[in-house]
Amino acid sequence: LGSILGIKIEGLGEIPSELKRLAQSFPSVFQNQIPKIEELLSSQRKEELYLKSPKSFNLPEVKVQNYDQEVTSQLDPFEVKDSRRAGGWKLMISSKDLVGEKGSIKAENVRFKVAKDSIEAIEGTASGLVVEDGPSVKIYPAEAAKGKGIFRFSPLITVTITQGAYSGSYKAEIESSLE
Q1: pTM of the model
Q2: Of 149, 153, 147, residue with least CA distance to 133
Q3: 51: exposed, middle or buried (C-beta count within 10 Å: 0-12, 13-18, 19+)?
Q4: Which residue, among 172, 54, 59, 156, has the nearest Cα to 112 in the 3D structure?
């Protein structure tokens, strides 16, 4: 494209999309260069692995009984985006201790669950994703080089509240890593 215009193009930024618009406006000048411009545009798309996730969760007004009990809640959505050519990623989600006004609940009492059929594939396909539930949840493509796309899901958390806990509201930080 630079040779057509007689210029050298580096650090493309918004230039390719403007050139494409210009080429479409003046097809006789650019002749058959639009496919080359489109190829240039697609090669400049940023490859990235990205995670959008909630930072914490709340358990509102827990009432402690004379026995262990479980409280279940749904977290705000997580979103994984993989636009890299190679693909392949692993997401791990866990919780820190829940902290309340009068005490805390250990993170070991928190369990995560992601129903495989609840993973929404905004782009790509979720059928090849593996989900391992437990104290931390792991989600990853079954094949190492797969998993390209954008995936959204909201894990369920179950907190076991033991007899020794205090009634009240609790909050915990969420730890998540995407590699």
Answers
A1: 0.70
A2: 153
A3: middle
A4: 156
Compute CA 86 distance to the chain's CA centroid, rounded to the nearest angstrom. 17
Q: How many Cβ atoms from other residues are within 10 Å of residue 75's Cβ? A: 19
Give how far Cα 158 sits from Cα of 23, 37, 74, 143, 166, Å: 57, 52, 9, 29, 17
* Order of all β-strands in the sheet with 78-82: 49-52, 78-82, 149-153, 120-123
Q: Return mean pLDDT, the chain.
A: 81
CA distance 100 to 169: 6
| Segment 82-111, tens digit of pLDDT | 888 776 789 999 999 999 999 999 999 999
The pLDDT value given to residue 61? 82
Output the pLDDT for position 12.
Answer: 44
Instruction: Report CA Rg, the chain.
Output: 24
Distance of alpha carbon 107 from alpha carbon 119, whole angstroms: 24
Residue in this structure with the two tokens 């392949």, named with its chain if needed: 88
3-class state of residue 102 by DSSP: coil
**Residue type for 44, please?**
Q
Task: Give φ, ψ of 104 to 5 degrees.
Answer: -140, 165
